[in-house]
Amino acid sequence: MRWSWLLTVGVVVLSLGATALGEMGLEVPEYDGHDRVHHLSAKNYKSVMKRYDVMVLYYHRNVDGSRTATKQLQIEELALELSITQASLIFKLAAQVLEDLKDEDIGFALLDAKKEKSVAKSLGLDEVESIYIFADDEIIEYDGELAADTLVEFLYDVIEDPVEIIDNERELKGFNNMDEVIKLAGYFKSEKSPHYVEYEDAAEEFHPFIKFFATFDPKIGKKLKLKLNEVDLYEPFMEESVSIPGRPYTEDELVNYIEEHDRPTLRKLEPHSMYEIWEDDIDGEHIVAFAEEDDPDGYEFLEILKEVARENTDNPNLSIIWIDPDNFPLLVPYWEKTFRIDLGSPQIGVVDVEDADSVWMEMDDQDDMPTADELEQWVEDVLSGKIDPDMDDDDDEDDDDDDDDDDDDDDDDDDDDDDDDDDDDDDDDDDDDDDDDDDDDDDDDDDDDDDVV
Description:
Layout: H1 4-20, E1 37-39, H2 45-50, E2 54-60, H3 67-97, E3 106-112, H4 117-123, E4 130-135, E5 138-142, H5 148-159, E6 163-165, H6 169-176, E7 183-187, H7 194-206, E8 211-215, H8 218-223, E9 230-234, E10 242-243, H9 251-260, E11 266-268, H10 274-279, E12 285-290, H11 296-311, E13 320-323, H12 332-339, E14 347-352, E15 358-360, H13 372-384, H14 389-452
Parallel strand pairs: 1-3, 2-3, 6-8, 7-8, 11-13, 12-13
Antiparallel strand pairs: 2-4, 4-5, 7-9, 9-10, 12-14, 14-15
Helix pairs in contact: 1-3, 3-5, 7-9, 11-13
């Protein structure tokens, strides 16, 4: 991961937030100067990690001898400091208000990739510039935005149980309203059921990235259209779930099925998983759609996009990333400059993940969104290769070559014109010389005549 600009953004946001309001109940914590971030080494890492239920570890590059890198690390450390300050306040308040919520001790630490290779090997770390979270004997790589609020929200998910139980109608309604995430629901006899234990073990493998739900209530199971020991997978934005075949399942069977179907046809880019989603490309490309859900045009375009996704959900080669610009306000100028688009209106394009080259669908009228058929045809052209960022690059290069050829032709024409002008000038000079000679001869003749007279 590369966190540099995101870290700066996170610090700025927290700094502004701390001075914005002073009303009780709306106070944002400021960094108090106390160092709460540990620097792990071979001598202390075991004792430090034993002190916490959850450890957030930033595995960073070595910065010795680089002023720029050292300054960057200070920013990163400051961001982690701010995170733990905010996390501590949130956890204390949550523990006070929600007595059933068990408070967790969360620690933050830095590990130098060069100096502490043995520690990294012992902990199983292999990707420098990454954040790892150690919890319940599991190692979770954090692939989201390094901002205090995003990180803390993710940690809340980490400390929750991997399976959420649906006990009543209100919880069922909340489950049904979660249409933006991939989720699973199972119906089992009880928590002691061996089939539920297998389901719970599978959930731990994907926690907290994929939401797992279960019910032991026959009425809830019926409303979910589940048979006993059956599990359904819900793809984001789809109207119907898919029953996993082969019930009852073992943990491995569930894990294998989910891994084969964990790339939705349409998925939303979220701050807490933005890098994970972006790295999950198809042949080095993403189909990306920008649309503000709270904007009338954006909402209309998103509904059309959902319709296309539902019609093509069985196509394994189709995966569309939906980005709501409102969720990433600090990235909007970057995206507009990089992709040369206006995010004031909905956009859809195909992006090369290596060099960010892109091609965007031309919309004749921004006030009139494309129909589902038009959008589906554009998607088919992308999947067939008719629309490709690399081909667009070749066209641009050809245009540049044509411009160069035109310039060369113009230069040649100018040279020819200059040569013609020079020849004309030479001819004129010769004519002038001849005229002068004739005049001289005439003068000489006149002189001779005078002498004779």
